């Protein structure tokens, strides 16, 4: 087996959410001098290829990464992760939501270093709160995802009971849970823009 420091990983970005609470497409909200989506693409520069999961490719023109559309519309992250794992080049893939504007590549590198061959999924958590959309997923979970799609299961967490999943606390990796902050409302976005993080 290759040591984890030489394993090549792909990156997958989930950008196909409704953004219903925000009222506008979060992917294009500016944060600092870049948008949420451009920030996430930059964080995943450590990957050899990066794909973006979208509900409608027409909404995402001039992207520097290839797009993959949902086959099952309005199906949630199960569909997005399934399509990403089908398309990425490598057998191991970082999955990130596009609404984590404080995420850093250094956290992903620490997760990569913690990955073992036994893990099908390595999911970050902050104490008792699990963050399924910040994790490492292996292509070998595709049969389990396909079964979930057939069974009409939209939420991703049932996957973790079907495959070998390990949870790792962000504090144990030496990082603040603030990196996992996702932005869902206008109020949260305004607080982010005024906050000391940027």
Report on this model:
With 198 residues, the chain is an alpha/beta fold. The protein has six helices and nine strands; from the N terminus they run E-E-E-H-E-E-H-E-H-E-E-H-H-E-H. The strands form two sheets. A seven-stranded mixed beta sheet has the order 5-4-1-6-8-7-9, sandwiched between helices. The protein has a two-stranded antiparallel ribbon with strand order 2-3. The radius of gyration is 16 Å and the shape is globular. The model has no long low-confidence stretch (mean pLDDT 89).
How is this fold's topology laid out?
Elements lengths: L9 E5 L15 E2 L2 E2 H8 L5 E6 L12 E3 L7 H11 L4 E6 L7 H10 L6 E6 L2 E10 L3 H9 L6 H4 L4 E5 L16 H9 L4
Parallel strand pairs: 1-4, 1-6, 4-5, 7-9
Antiparallel strand pairs: 2-3, 6-8, 7-8
Low-confidence stretches: none
In the CATH hierarchy, what is the architecture at level 2? Alpha-Beta Complex
Q: Sketch the major β-sheet.
A: 7 strands, mixed
Structural class estimated from helices and strands: alpha/beta
Number of strands: 9
Radius of gyration: 16 Å
**Number of discrete helical segments:** 6
Provide the domain count: 1
- Order of helix and strand elements from N to C terminus: EEEHEEHEHEEHHEH
CATH topology: Spore Coat Polysaccharide Biosynthesis Protein SpsA, Chain A
Determine the N-to-C terminus distance.
Answer: 40 Å
CATH superfamily: Spore Coat Polysaccharide Biosynthesis Protein SpsA, Chain A
Strand order of the largest sheet: 5-4-1-6-8-7-9
Please identify the top-level CATH class: Alpha Beta
Average pLDDT, all residues: 89
Cα shape: globular
Please indicate the percent range of residues in DSSP E strands (runs of 2 or more).
15-25%
Oligomer state equals: single chain
Residues in helices, as a percent range = 25-40%
């Amino acid at each position: 087996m290759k040591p984890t420091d030489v394993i090549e990983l792909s990156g997958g970005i989930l950008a196909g959410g409704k953004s219903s609470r925000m009222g506008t497409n979060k992917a294009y909200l500016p944060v600092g001098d870049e948008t949420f989506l451009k920030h996430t693409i930059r964080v995943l520069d450590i990957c050899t290829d990066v794909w973006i999961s979208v509900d409608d490719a027409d909404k995402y023109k001039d992207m520097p990464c290839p797009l993959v559309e949902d086959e099952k519309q309005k199906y949630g992250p199960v569909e997005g992760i399934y399509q990403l794992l089908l398309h990425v080049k490598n057998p191991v893939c970082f999955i990130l939501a596009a609404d984590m504007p404080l995420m850093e590549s250094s956290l992903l590198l620490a997760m990569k270093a913690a990955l073992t061959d036994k893990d099908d999924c390595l999911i970050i958590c902050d104490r008792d709160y699990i963050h399924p959309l910040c994790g490492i997923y292996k292509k070998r979970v595709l049969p389990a995802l396909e079964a979930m799609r057939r069974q009409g299961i939209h939420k991703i967490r049932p996957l973790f009971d079907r495959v070998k999943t390990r949870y790792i606390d962000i504090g144990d990796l030496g990082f603040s849970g603030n990196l996992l902050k996702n932005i869902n409302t206008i109020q949260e976005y305004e607080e982010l823009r005024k906050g000391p993080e940027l």
